[in-house]
Every structure is written in C-alpha cells, then in structure tokens.
TrEMBL record:
Protein name: SMP-30/Gluconolactonase/LRE-like region domain-containing protein
PANTHER family attached to this UniProt entry: MESOCENTIN, PTHR31460
Domain of life the protein comes from: Eukaryota
GO (cellular component) term, any one: endoplasmic reticulum
SUPFAM superfamilies reported for this sequence: NHL repeat (SSF101898)
Transmembrane segments: 346-364
Keywords per UniProt: Membrane, Signal, Transmembrane, Transmembrane helix
Statement: the UniProt record of this protein carries the keyword Transmembrane helix: yes
Lineage of origin: Eukaryota, Viridiplantae, Streptophyta, Embryophyta, Tracheophyta
Length: 378
C-alpha cells in the first residue's frame, strides 16, 4: 500500500474515533439516578428539607418526635428529640430559616390522639433547643374534622406559613411564635375534586407551599391538582393557570437559579416554570417515581440538586408490617430532568468532537506535507 493510502486510512480511522468519542460523551437517558439509602428503624419520614449551613438533609418522623440529619453518604444523626411533644405526634413539613438558623416543623396528632396542630421552632445552633411550640387556631372548634398542619414555608423575615390540608386555609406564625389564620380565600374551596381521586388524597386539600421573595406564596392542592398564588401581605389568592392538573400533588420546592418549581406526587415529579410571575405556568417535564416508596416530599439541595424522599409513610400509617419488623431503610433520590439543558450539553459534546476531528485533519495534512517534502528532498 502507498504512503498516501496509509495516510488516508489513518485519517479515516481518526475521524471514526472522533465520532465514537462524541457518542460516548453524550449522556444517555438511561443514566442511573443517585440514591442515598439511610437506616433508621421505624422512622417513616414524611417531611424533607435541606440545611445549607449543615450541608445535609433533614427528615421528620411519623411517631418518634425526632428530626434527623442525613448526609450524602447516608450517615444519620439525631438533630432534634422533643419528648415534650404529645406521644406519637407526627412531624410533617419542615423548613429551614437560614437567617436565624432555625428549623420550623409542622406538628400533627392523628387519632386516637387528641387533636393537635402546631408549629415548632428549633435552634439548629444549640443542639436543637426548642424555641417555641405554637398551637395553630382552628376556624371552628366544634367541627368534627380535625385540622392538619402539613407543609411549611418561611419568608426572609422569619415568618412561617403552614398549610391546613383538612380545611383548606393557611396559617401564619411570626418569628416570635404568634400564630394566626392568614388566608381563607374562597378560591381554595372552589375547585372540583378530581374524579379519580382515591382514599390516599381525596380529603387532602392545600399541601405543598413555597415562598417567593417577590412577595407571594405558591401552594398546591392535592385533591384538585390546582396551584394558587397567594399575596404575602393580604392573603389574597389567585388560581395559577397550568397546562395540566398536578393530581395528588404533595410537597414542593423552588430552585434559586431559575425560579423553577418542582412538585412531587405519589407517582411522578413535575418540573414547572412560569414566564409571568405565576399568572400562568407550564409543566416542561415530568419524571416517573418509585410508587412503592410512597414519595411525599422534595427539596433543593446545593448546586440546585432536586431530591425526593421515599419515606414509605403509608406503610407506617397502616402498620402493614409484622410486629417488630418495622422498615429500617429509607431513600432520598436525586432526580434529573432530561429536558433541562440537554440541547446545550449535546452541543458542547459536538463541539468537542468537531475540535478533535479538526485536529485529526490538521495532523493528517501535516503528515502529508512532511511526506511530500521528504520525497522532494530524496
């Protein structure tokens, strides 16, 4: 074979290698998700949040009156143990007040315990010392339906907002622990319950809630799939026009980077964005979740990582386990949107491949030039 033929073959081989390199670099949609497994027998956590100062997750508990930190490596430590809460009280929604280094926790007592809905505040700088426990007032004390203090959000002043999932209103608790009924908008009771609502969320109204520094809250409603925008000063609510209902919506979180809201349900995670400060919103991606894990909460960790909690709460509520065999292991899963920034990443890999191909072409031309020069000299 001539030297020219050898060079051509070498060049073609280099181009082929460049193509293979790009195909290997482009991420596959089948990439395995990162899952943090952590051991805490009988915990059955419902609430999840991220502590930016501690650089770890915080999870609540179904019956143990405790809050635990979970590291990325799955190391579990008890951050708060409050034996003065009613026995078997459930710690539901969690929110970290980063300015004051406080943890705010929604407290609920299910039957056969006496009715109790409260917000507890704990100092994360002093070993979890309780700052206050504020009972949350009811609209009608004679109502047989008990209040359910569910999810919690906090604003930049330290005010907490708590959803009442049973009676469709929002409480407000100021930074000193003074509680009041904040929003009883008639809109919260104006939307029809979805026809296929099952027992797990049929009676669950307002649920996940997030605060936006532009002066409003976003809250989702489980049994209607609707989202509302609530003014932080007046409590006035508006229905956010979405392109689909978020049926069985539970916890929600907001990313700082772009304002995207993520909403978790028992079956999927929705990525929702808005271009007009939440007059309208669009679900631009949805990710299927592990139904058996019974996901209930989502949080945004460092670097805008979206993480979902599999606390298997329904198993703990129903007691569907043998005596002495409560579940020991639970999971936190990082969830990625395949539609998010995918095109930009692909173009980066394509440019890398083209650069490599150009280098191969330049190398081929230089080798050909040197070969021709050698011939002339000879």
């Amino acid at each position: 074979m001539s030297s020219s033929g050898c060079c051509t073959s070498s060049f073609l081989l280099s181009i082929l290698l460049a193509v293979v390199l790009v195909s290997l670099l482009i991420p596959s949609s089948a990439t395995k998700r990162h899952v943090i497994s952590f051991r805490s027998p009988g915990l059955y956590p419902e609430g999840l949040t991220w502590d930016p100062s501690g650089q770890h997750f915080l999870v609540g508990s179904l019956h143990s009156r405790t809050v635990h930190s979970v590291s990325d490596a799955g190391v579990v430590q008890t951050v708060i143990s409050d034996p003065f809460l009613p026995e078997n009280a459930t710690i539901l929604g969690l929110a970290v007040d980063s300015g004051d280094r406080r943890l705010l926790a929604g407290i609920h007592c299910a039957p056969p315990l006496l009715p109790c809905s409260a917000l507890a505040a704990y100092d994360l700088r002093s070993g979890g010392r309780r700052i206050f426990l504020s009972p949350l007032p009811s609209l009608n004390n004679e109502d047989e339906v008990r209040d359910i203090a569910n999810d919690v959000a906090v604003d930049h002043k330290g005010n907490a907002y708590v959803t009442n999932s049973a009676k469709n209103f929002i409480w407000k608790v100021d930074r000193d622990g003074l509680a009041s009924i904040f929003s009883t908008s008639p809109l919260f009771n104006s939307q029809p319950v979805v026809p296929d609502a099952d027992a797990s969320f049929r009676d669950c109204g307002l649920n996940g809630i997030v605060y936006n520094s532009r002066g409003y809250l976003l809250v989702v409603q489980s049994n209607t799939g609707k989202m509302f925008k609530v003014d932080e000063e007046t409590g006035t609510a508006r229905l956010v026009s979405l392109d689909r209902d978020l049926v069985a919506a539970d916890g929600m979180a907001r990313r700082r980077r772009d304002g995207t809201v993520v909403v978790v349900s028992q079956k999927k995670l929705w990525f929702v964005k808005s271009q007009d400060s939440w007059g309208e919103g669009v679900v631009y991606d949805e990710v299927e979740l592990d139904v058996e894990g019974f996901p209930t909460a989502v949080t945004v960790a460092e670097q805008d990582r979206v993480c979902v909690l599999y606390g298997r709460v329904m198993e703990g509520i129903m007691g569907s386990y043998k005596d002495g065999e409560e579940r020991e292991w639970f999971e936190i899963e990082e969830v990625l949107s395949e539609k998010e920034g995918g095109d930009d990443k692909v173009w980066v890999y394509v440019l890398v491949g083209l650069g490599f191909a150009y280098f191969c072409f330049w190398r081929f031309q230089m080798k050909k030039l040197i070969t021709n020069m050698d011939k002339k000299i000879t």
